[in-house]
Amino acid sequence: MIFLRRVCLAIVMFILIVYCSPAQGADITRLKVEHSPQFRVSFFIKDAFTKDIEEAIKSGIPTSFTFIIKLYRKKTLWPDELVGSWRFDHTVRYDILKEVYEVVLAEKNTTEKVKDRKKMHILMSTVSDMVISPTPVLKEGEVYELRIKAKLYTVRLPFLLKYVLFFLKFWDVESSWYVYRFTV
Length: 184
Known about the structure:
The chain is of the alpha+beta class. The chain has one domain. The protein has four helices and ten strands. Strands 3, 4, 5, 6, 8, 9 and 10 form a seven-stranded antiparallel sheet that branches. The longest helix has 19 residues, at about 1-20. The model is unreliable at about 15-25 and about 165-170 (pLDDT under 50).
């Protein structure tokens, strides 16, 4: 009887934690996928910048979006086969003296300097015609699933400082996996 109560309590706690936790807010939208002749992906991250993140950027704290892209070949009776996995960053740093945002786009290997906050938001939140390299070999008639996730980190501390400064709030934001199925 006591065991049954504990199991019921654990289930109720799990449901409360999952359904009552605050939403993260960031979502992947406007996905565009081209798979001929090159495999290209474009998308936008909506609602990624909160007031706290804006203040952290404005104070000069480097902030990064880490984008994770995974491509799976769907199987019916077996686990899905991972075809490829790619990871890249968009990083912004605000120069307080020059009043300029410096945005590093890793997938294009470029750095852009802008003064406008809205332009910085667009640069940080948009992945435009990114060529997936090496190009995955896609078989005709097969079903594939593209999964995309974005994580925002405001501070990356050295290994030992993470444990010393555990009480700091870092305002990390993470989107849920965006899943797109397609057939070649």
